[in-house]
Design goal:
It is a single chain. The chain has about 80 residues and is an alpha+beta fold. Helices cover about 30% and strands about 15% of the residues. The strands form 2 sheets. Strands 1-2 form a two-stranded parallel sheet. The longest helix has 13 residues.
Amino acid sequence: MFEQCREIVERQTKYNTENSINAIPILIYHSVDYSGGDYSVNPDLFEKEMEYLFENGYKIFQMKDIVYDNEEGLHIKGH
């Protein structure tokens, strides 16, 4: 599962430059627990994924902070 997460995240980077965001990897976690349910992620896997994102310079934003407008295109509020 970790490899699948990494692949999804890295797939977006080819569309972005230092000054232009054209794609954002979106990861959604419904539940982080040991239940093994369809919509849950094991806490150990979650920790590994968060560590990967941090170590590779990814920033975490809430969906409400990701906006699109005709002047700036896709961007993060306040950045």
